[in-house]
Specification:
A 7-stranded mixed beta sheet has the order 3-5-6-1-7-2-4. α2 links the parallel β5 and β6 (about 115). By secondary structure, the protein is an alpha/beta fold. The protein is built from 4 helices and 7 strands, in the order βββαββαβαβα. The chain binds zinc ion.
């Protein structure tokens, strides 16, 4: 059973991500992405592969209202640097991490953070006209900086940030639970092929 069919209107994804920018620092900087670049290749990423087809707009794939609630809540808790926007590069992984050349390319493409889980879930939520936002914490500098990321480091930083992430989500949920004023619910309008 899908989240949509049980009446869910908003989704907050929790992600641990690598940083592609000096100023998004590992150790728990919080990033609320507002764009993504999809480098996944083999994942099923639509509900509309026929017979009905909707070409939804993902020009602005995240919910602006949930994004801003998450950012202000994270900021209000203090202790974390909060980035209100960022471009999230999504790779499939193999589940390997990137090569140095790939990581440098993603930086040049304008990526700010990198992870493996955002797509297709953001796209599928958009296709169901749900609100979707992500609270990402930065665990590492991927592999473009001197010391390449390893899994144990990612897990250590994730663990350190668990309580903060849980608290931000707990405090944000009641603030976004009213009627939706964003445009996420109208994503399917004029999208049917
Ligand atoms: Zn929304």
């Amino acid at each position: 059973m899908g989240l949509n069919s049980v009446g869910v209107k908003r989704i907050i994804g929790i992600n641990a991500v690598g940083s592609l920018k000096e100023e998004m620092r590992p150790g728990g900087d919080v990033v609320i992405p507002d764009q993504f670049i999809d480098f996944t290749k083999r994942r099923d990423s639509t509900f509309y592969d026929g017979p009905s087809v909707y070409h939804i707009s993902t020009a602005d794939p995240f919910c602006p209202d949930v994004n801003s609630a998450l950012a202000s809540q994270a900021r209000a808790m203090g202790g974390k640097r909060v980035h209100d926007s960022g471009t999230y590069v999504v790779i499939e992984g193999g589940p390997r991490f990137s090569t140095r050349a790939e990581s440098k390319m993603f930086r040049q493409f304008g990526g700010d953070i990198i992870g493996m889980t955002l797509v297709p879930e953001v796209v599928l939520a958009d296709e169901m006209a749900m609100c979707y936002s992500v609270l990402a914490t930065v665990t590492d500098y991927d592999v473009w900086s001197e010391k390449p990321v390893d899994t144990s480091e990612v897990l250590r930083v994730m663990k350190e940030n668990e309580d903060v992430v849980r608290e931000v989500v707990r405090e944000t949920v009641p603030r976004i639970s009213g009627e939706r004023k964003c445009n996420c619910s109208s994503r399917l309008e004029n999208a049917k092929a």
